[in-house]
Design a protein that fits this description.
By secondary structure, this protein is of the alpha/beta class. It has 13 helices and 17 strands. The longest helix is centred in the N-terminal third of the chain and has 21 residues. It binds NADP nicotinamide-adenine-dinucleotide phosphate. The site of NADP nicotinamide-adenine-dinucleotide phosphate has 22 residues, from helix 1.
């Protein structure tokens, strides 16, 4: 092979970064791979919109199907996003003998197995470093650098939009809605922000990381997912007064008979490293039995950081081709015959400490009603905070921090509290992870 010929699907944010990086850094890349990368084709919805890029020698059209079959393409780079038609196009590319590189976390997390099996059948590579945490090389780190470890846990901040919103709410004392609007204005949040703020994007990435860490098929549907819409500025202030910050965390733990997989707003101590990850940055912490905890931090999205990860996959591919290898590393780390699903624990079995915020009528006896509900579910209280902060004309905020207890007992208590005449609205509950790095 004299060069690696690339066909790209889509010409949006990430694709523009890939096109410019290959042109700008091409010579240095060729010195590292021995095989130059050459962008030969782009197929996208609006081929006339080329964003002022230098695309000399690149055929640009709207025929996405033809690109997946083209004789002059060795690898299809999918940067369109979405499940359909991306899945159909990548299956076609693999069946036509192309390797595939994608940044599409939704596709890998939800339909990945179909693609992995097709890649294996055709002896082609399917790479997806850019699908998790942008420039941060976390897929490679778990799959290769930590490959000899039993992974015990993974936790991290995998969505820059949510982390930006939570950071800004704390630093500027703004509400969720005000901060979201600001993030949208600055281009950090989509017009429809639900994938980000409802935790779906983080869960897609967690599904991919846990699959690689434990040699299981990606299992997005079994992840317990909560987003950050219900976090208020007063939660952030209460947390700060108690020595905590609120972060949207992806958490995966290997437990006795399966996995714990969850995405949730979480109180983490201000002294932890994860609490120091601010703004649009991402960070992942991986604990291996021999390596201990390692941390990976960087820009998790954006044109250039994401392009860096896509082109890194192309560099790997070129090096493999140079060495005469169709494929070197199994995409989910273990050999395909050793992939096996692990049961995922029900969230009801989770044990942790909780932060509970209630709006209560300010009169004698209310506290006793609430504490007796908690006691009847075997939940003991670590601290109660009530500073007479009015949340409405007739209610004040009450914050309770519990010792470790079972999620199902906490949920039963919350349901009982909601039924009390003295409690207004839905209680807010946030899990606490005091022991994180
Ligand atoms: N942006 C990031 O920071 C980032 C980070 C990590 C991973 N990713 C992933 O990378 C992928 C691309 O993201 P992006 O932000 O670059 O998206 P984007 O800016 O929306 O670009 C998508 C491109 O694909 C084209 N396209 C979409 N559907 C198409 C179809 N059915 N047929 C032909 N062309 C189609 C779009 O054309 P039109 O513009 O004409 O619609 C556009 O050129 C996604 O899977 C995303 O999850 C993105």
């Amino acid at each position: 092979m004299k060069e690696l010929r690339i066909g790209m699907l889509g010409l949006g944010t990430v694709a523009r970064g890939v096109a410019s990086m290959i042109r700008r850094n091409g010579q240095g890349i060729a010195h590292r791979t021995g095989i130059p990368l050459r962008l030969v084709r782009i197929a996208t919805r609006n081929p006339g919109k080329t964003w002022g890029l230098n695309l000399e020698g690149v055929r640009v059209d709207a025929d996405v199907d033809a690109l997946t079959r083209a004789d002059d393409v060795d690898v299809v780079v999918e940067l369109m996003g979405g499940l359909d038609p991306a899945e159909r196009l990548l299956l076609s590319a693999l069946d036509h003998g192309k390797h595939v590189v994608t940044a599409n976390k939704a596709l890998i997390a939800e339909r990945g197995m179909n693609l992995f099996e097709t890649a294996q059948k055709n002896n082609r590579e399917l790479s997806f470093e850019a699908a998790v945490a942008g420039a941060v090389p976390i897929v490679k780190a778990i799959r290769e650098s930590l490959a000899a470890n039993h992974i015990e846990s993974i936790h991290g901040i995998l969505n820059g939009t949510c982390n930006y919103i939570l950071t800004e709410m704390r630093e500027r004392g703004l509400s969720f809605d005000q901060t979201l609007a600001d993030a949208q204005k600055k281009g950090y949040a989509e017009a429809d922000p639900s994938f980000d703020v409802d935790g779906i994007d983080t869960a897609h990435k967690l599904a991919i990381l846990s699959a690689i860490a434990w040699g299981t098929p990606p299992d997005f549907r079994s992840i317990h997912v909560e987003g950050i819409r219900r976090i208020t500025d007063s939660d952030i202030t209460w947390a700060a007064e108690m020595g905590y910050r609120i972060k949207l965390l992806a958490i995966a733990k290997r437990r006795d008979h399966g996995l714990e997989l969850r995405v949730q707003p979480t109180l983490v101590t201000v002294s932890s490293m994860v609490s120091q990850v601010e703004g649009v940055f991402n960070a992942v912490f991986v604990k291996g039995d021999y390596a201990g905890t390692t941390m990976y931090h960087g820009r998790g999205a954006g044109e250039q950081p994401t392009a860096s990860a896509v082109v890194a996959d192309l560099v790997d591919l070129a090096r493999n081709q140079g060495a005469g290898l169709a494929s070197r590393v199994p995409p989910l780390s273990v050999m395909p015959q050793h992939l096996s699903p692990l049961p995922v624990h029900d969230i009801a079995d989770l044990k942790c400490e909780y932060y509970v915020r209630l709006a209560v009528v300010d009169r004698p006896g209310v506290l006793a009603e609430i504490t007796s509900i908690l006691a009847s579910h075997g939940i003991s209280i670590d601290a109660i905070h009530q500073k007479g902060r009015a949340v409405s004309q007739e209610a004040v905020a009450l914050v309770i921090v519990t010792h470790e207890c079972l999620e199902k007992e906490m949920q039963a208590s919350l349901a009982a509290m909601e039924r009390l005449e003295s409690v207004r609205g839905k209680p807010m509950v946030i899990r606490m992870e005091s022991g994180l790095t």
